[in-house]
Amino acid sequence: MSREEKITQTFVELADTLADGFDVIDFLQQLTVRCRDILDISDAAVLLAYPGPPLYSPVPSDPGPALASVLEVAVHQGPAADAYRSGAAVAPGDLAGAPAAWRDFTTRARAAGCAYACAVPLRARQEILGSLLLLRTADTPLPAADLALAQAFADAAAIGLLHARTLQLADTVNEQLQTALHSRVLIEQAKGFLAARRGISPSDAFDALRRHARHHRLPLSTVAQEVIDQQGLPRPTPVARPPGRGASAD
Fold this sequence. Notes:
Layout: H1 3-15, H2 24-38, E1 43-48, E2 56-60, H3 65-74, H4 79-86, H5 103-111, E3 116-124, E4 127-136, H6 144-198, H7 202-215, H8 220-230
Antiparallel strand pairs: 1-2, 1-4, 3-4
Helix pairs in contact: 1-2, 1-6, 2-6, 3-5, 6-7, 6-8, 7-8
């Protein structure tokens, strides 16, 4: 699939928030996966302030311990927090020259192998729902076209979330957003287990979880819990069928 086709597919996915069984955790996780696949970055995470502050981080794309440590600080300082407060993209350059106010964020990001960080707000008109953090191992700025595309993805995601909340899923979306941080941990555990068991990448393991959840119309967090409990993806429940022609009846 070409880059242009991936971009088109991403916008379609970000617009699809009114389908039955909409799962906001899956939705935001997929946003970070698409960013990492399409943009010239090493990692991405969504930090939300929804339905109100403070920021918290529900869905990094594939966090190891070092990235998880970065996100603990990113909710308070660094480009993601600044993008949320200002409602504008924050792309200051490489972390070697980062502002002094980012000291803890910069220290942890560089320890995680990141040399550059920027962020764009998740915004819809005057409402800001959070921010999208983008990390690079290279110490050169993110290409301007990639930064603009990240902002377009973030805007589309914010509009999709607001549509879901406003039109029909307000209670469900708010509840899912409130519990997203806890669900993320569960999903990452299941993804890691499935990747190790099948000998596949974490991204492929997430795709397997997501396909199973969508096929069976289950929340992603429910499938993750079943993977942990059953040591693998649950087998589909056999559908009872009436006796075939010629079968004897008791």
